[in-house]
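quick q for whoever's on today - can somebody do inverse folding on this one?? i tried earlier but teh output was garbage lol. tokens:
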């Protein structure tokens, strides 16, 4: 058997020096700027990738596999790097064109849908337990379409259109009213559907707005939107109460000042984030590490593995997800600004490292993750950059299928 090549990207001496000096200053002062947090996320997507085919790792582990959702986030984050002068535009163009051609020619898809996790070198599905994923395909295609807008009039735009037109959303409905979560070649469609209010709003806009295999706009209406009242606010909630579900679509689509017949989704996420913060503050005497200014309950790594740690009493064991608080910055800027600095001051290098904030930590059990996860870093970079410049929203809201999707479901400016 041929020996597998070691896929690695080595930072330059000047970059290593920059990171070391920045870390020394951050840990000494207990303060970190938003641009530095975005820069660390960019570094992940630039470094934790196969430089030959452009695939991006799910997380920064030796011998790890690629994730199409990390790739979907990574492509726009590389474009942020261009805008901020961290990398040359032609370098990013070459990286994106390489990975899009690889995905088109090497990574297997069924009806335009891709497997969630792929071998970093070959693009082959990693195992029989890996599903053909509807939500993760939407993230990958979303990243490609973003690049098509950013590099408009180039081969990247042509390639991104090919991916969008290939996705057969009607097939993924599996004769139901809402989209299936995925499909296995060994046993068919996943029985669970995207029917509860969750992170999937961006996916539905894409599926409803496409001209190739669009689903009916009524699928938007079949999403169950339960309401609850918490800490003085009434909002539509997800049963996991993980902040991730309120943030993912907001990172891609600019829902501000838009409303359908149900709600303003931006304001809804703002209420959910505030309730999550208050939930932690209220329990500061029950869990070491919980504070009024150190919060963030979401899916992340914990002492017993990766799972949801949402704002529900029975989900708590003291684990916090730093990215979820940081990503809430545009929703609650004053509270999150205080939270970021307090978290750095309390925990220092145990929660801050090469690519920013680690996936999760549990001060009560003295457990701190040493890993960084692509979708968490991508979400962080998106929301912080949107807060500073609106960069992601500007290009993504201009994609045809997103504009048509919003029009078809009745999402109108207020």
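ok took a stab at it. sequence:
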């Amino acid at each position: 058997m041929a020996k597998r090549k070691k896929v690695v990207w080595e930072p330059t001496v000047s970059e290593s020096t920059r990171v070391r000096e920045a870390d020394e200053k951050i840990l000494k002062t207990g303060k970190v700027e938003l641009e530095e947090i975005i820069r660390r996320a960019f570094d992940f997507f630039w470094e934790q990738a196969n430089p030959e085919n452009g695939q991006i790792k799910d997380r920064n582990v030796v011998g790890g596999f690629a994730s199409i959702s990390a790739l979907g986030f990574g492509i726009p984050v590389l474009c942020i790097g261009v805008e901020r002068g961290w990398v040359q535009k032609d370098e990013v163009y070459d990286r994106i064109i390489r990975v899009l051609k690889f995905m088109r020619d090497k990574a297997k898809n069924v009806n335009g849908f891709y497997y969630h996790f792929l071998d970093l070198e070959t693009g082959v599905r990693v195992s029989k337990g890996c599903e053909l994923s509807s939500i993760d395909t939407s993230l990958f295609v979303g990243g490609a379409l973003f690049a098509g807008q950013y590099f408009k009039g180039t081969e990247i735009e042509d390639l991104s259109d090919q991916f969008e037109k290939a996705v057969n959303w009607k097939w993924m409905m599996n004769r139901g009213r809402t989209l299936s979560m995925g499909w296995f070649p060994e046993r068919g469609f996943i029985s669970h559907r995207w029917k509860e209010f969750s992170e999937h709003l961006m996916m539905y806009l894409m599926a409803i707005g496409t001209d190739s295999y669009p689903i009916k706009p009524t699928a938007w209406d079949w999403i169950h939107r339960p309401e609850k009242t918490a800490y003085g606010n009434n909002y539509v909630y997800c049963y996991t109460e993980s902040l991730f579900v309120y943030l993912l679509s907001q990172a891609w689509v600019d829902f501000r000042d838009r409303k359908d017949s149900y709600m303003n989704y931006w304001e809804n996420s703002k209420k959910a984030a505030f309730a999550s913060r208050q939930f932690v503050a209220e329990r500061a005497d029950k869990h070491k590490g919980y504070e009024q200014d150190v919060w963030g309950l979401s899916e992340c790594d914990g002492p017993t593995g990766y799972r949801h740690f949402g704002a529900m009493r029975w989900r708590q064991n003291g684990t916090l997800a730093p990215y979820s608080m940081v990503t809430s910055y545009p929703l609650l800027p004053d509270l999150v600004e205080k939270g970021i600095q307090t978290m750095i001051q309390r925990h220092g290098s145990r929660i801050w490292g090469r690519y920013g904030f680690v996936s999760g930590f549990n001060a009560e059990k003295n457990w701190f993750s040493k890993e960084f996860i692509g979708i968490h870093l991508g979400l962080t970079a998106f929301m912080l950059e949107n807060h500073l410049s609106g960069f992601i929203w500007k290009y993504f809201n201009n994609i045809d299928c997103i504009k048509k999707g919003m029009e078809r479901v009745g999402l109108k400016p207020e």
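fwiw The first strand starts at residue 66 and ends at 67. also The mean pLDDT is 96. so keep that in mind when u check it
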